[in-house]
Amino acid sequence: TAAMAPILLNCLGNDRKEYLEETFHVNNPNLDGMEEDILYHFSLGTKTHNLPEMFGDIKFVCVGGSAKRMKAFAQFIHTELNLPGSNDEPKDICEATDRYCMYKVGPVLSMSHGMGVPSISIMLHELIKLLHHAHCRDVVLFRLGTSGGVGLAPGTVVVSEKALDYNFLPQFEQVVLGKVIMRSTELDAGVSRELLQCSKELPNLPAVIGNTMCTNDFYEGQGRLDGALCSFSHAEKLEYLQRAYEAGVRNIEMESTVFAAMCRVCGLKAAVVCVTLLNRFDGDQITSPEDVLVEYQQRPQVLVAHYIKKRLALIALTPP
Amino acid sequence: TAAMAPILLNCLGNDRKEYLEETFHVNNPNLDGMEEDILYHFSLGTKTHNLPEMFGDIKFVCVGGSAKRMKAFAQFIHTELNLPGSNDEPKDICEATDRYCMYKVGPVLSMSHGMGVPSISIMLHELIKLLHHAHCRDVVLFRLGTSGGVGLAPGTVVVSEKALDYNFLPQFEQVVLGKVIMRSTELDAGVSRELLQCSKELPNLPAVIGNTMCTNDFYEGQGRLDGALCSFSHAEKLEYLQRAYEAGVRNIEMESTVFAAMCRVCGLKAAVVCVTLLNRFDGDQITSPEDVLVEYQQRPQVLVAHYIKKRLALIALTPP
């Protein structure tokens, strides 16, 4: 890691410059010269679909791992925004593929991204291209997820300050043509603060701001003792979790670093809002009853819906 | 990478010793002492389900990224094995969750694993535990996937000799409690040879044995010029693909290294069989018509079904 420091600083420098421009942009000069852009994993394309008409009014993109959960969020936000029409069977815009699901509800896009960094990375590349082709402006992205808690009561919502790698560093390691580069994983501090404020306005929504560790697997990488492979002791697990806690880590999940890094490079405001399903100091298996887990998983949705409603009220009040 | 060589050799040494025992085993002394093991991402558990009764007779596990494709494979293998009953609506054993789908067809398990190393890694941990709890013996695992070809005509099936990382090395980098360890990604040479032989017995099934590169993303890591981010030229892309070709790489996908590594550590025979959807020297976008792509994606299924039928005929001929 020490050897990578110069690369890191160099890349953060570049990213920061781009970020300060504060306009959303793809970082690929090739795109606008392409005759057609097929968003393969969405089953959408610039020739087959009118992307500006379909998506041009989007202001909020909410993503999460599970297809069922993001369909439920589409139905929930439809009710919360008092939109006309039925929300019984929202249409999956990506129904021609089973890679992801996608629902549009007024200015809100609700999408699933599967599990892990590579899966959400494919989704983000094609989502950011979609927002570009559709000429969207001032979009905020939210990841609404589940996670393992580190020293928190189950059901606590963690709004991520920074996404950290397994060394507790705020960076994402990206391979480009066989070379490793580092990208910063800082998130939008303003949106995080507003989300924490929103949590205080809601009943039954315990929330904290803390760091989120992102790993590439659920078992050995997160120090679980119950995988098919395990070569460490209970004491070594606790020692690692304790070091994570001391680095400000309050939860562990599997997508936040690349989500933060890609949004940051493209000048998109982003927040990560994950509920904890267990306290990893107390165990590894998720043993809460189904109805309790379902209620926990609604908490990030309730919080982000509240934020979106406040924002839309503000937009409505602002003269054009 | 040079600094990691001692770790690599050390780990390969351990893994090889375990592999030579040639019996399938989980590598976790904690498991058998657990009162209950919840396979959370499958919605199965040792207390709630009779795993030996449900899964004890499994001999072949076929996994692939797409849920729709693995459902189609379940229907296809049902017909191919002349099993009784209807295959119109196979039952998804994991229907209580949307993380993966799972179908059992006689001695064959067909499962989806989503996209990318972390997604298939969660599936493999819980699958290997399932096979362990169910007391399965002599199981062979196949990954049936899609990939980008390197110097091959689209539609060619690649049976992987080795799974390589982005440096073209046959190793998988696993983080355990914040430390990087390396695992070997060699696959079963015998099964691969038999699969190549099977391909020669089938019409319209062009197949080769070659190395498979596994990456953590679909765009920058595979040298695509059409992602949301791209910082390299067409010439640099071609130079990287050329180096891959010279290292024996014939296709690129996103799951093979961890699949090979985990199966190897647990003494499970494994093969990777992926069809190429395009030749990456010629382009990045997948532009073939839908019906052509569907036929390509059936090729690994046809090949592995043929292998399974030959194997079952052999088992039937062998005295107990």
Can you lay out the helices and strands and say which pair or pack?
Two copies of one chain form a homodimer.
Chain A: H1 5-20, E1 38-39, E2 44-45, H2 51-55, E3 60-64, H3 67-80, E4 102-105, E5 108-112, H4 117-133, E6 140-149, E7 157-164, E8 171-176, E9 179-184, H5 189-200, E10 207-214, H6 234-246, E11 249-253, H7 256-265, E12 269-279, H8 290-317
Parallel strand pairs in A: 3-5, 3-6, 6-12, 7-10, 10-11
Antiparallel strand pairs in A: 1-2, 4-5, 6-11, 7-12, 8-9
Number of strands of chain A: 12
Structural class of chain A: alpha/beta
Q: So what's the overall shape of chain A?
A: globular
Tell me the Rg of chain A in angstroms.
19 Å
Report the β-strand fraction of chain A as a percent range.
Answer: 15-25%
Please identify which CATH superfamily of chain A we are dealing with: Nucleoside phosphorylase domain
Question: What oligomeric state best describes the polypeptide chains here?
Answer: homodimer
Strand order of the largest sheet of chain A: 6-11-10-7-12
Any key phrases for this structure?
disordered N terminus, 22% strand, homodimer, globular, Uridine_phosphorylase_euk (chains A, B), 320 residues, alpha/beta
Task: Explain what the structure shows.
The first copy, chain A, is built from eight helices and twelve strands. Chain A is of the alpha/beta class. The first copy, chain A, has a single domain (2-317), classed as Rossmann fold, CATH 3.40.50.1580. In chain A, strands 6-11-10-7-12 form a five-stranded mixed barrel, surrounded by four helices. In chain A, strands 1-2 form a two-stranded antiparallel sheet. A two-stranded antiparallel ribbon of chain A has the order 8-9. The longest helix of chain A has 28 residues, at 290-317. Chain A is globular. Chains A and B meet through helix 4, strand 8 and helix 6 of A and helix 4, strand 8 and helix 6 of B.
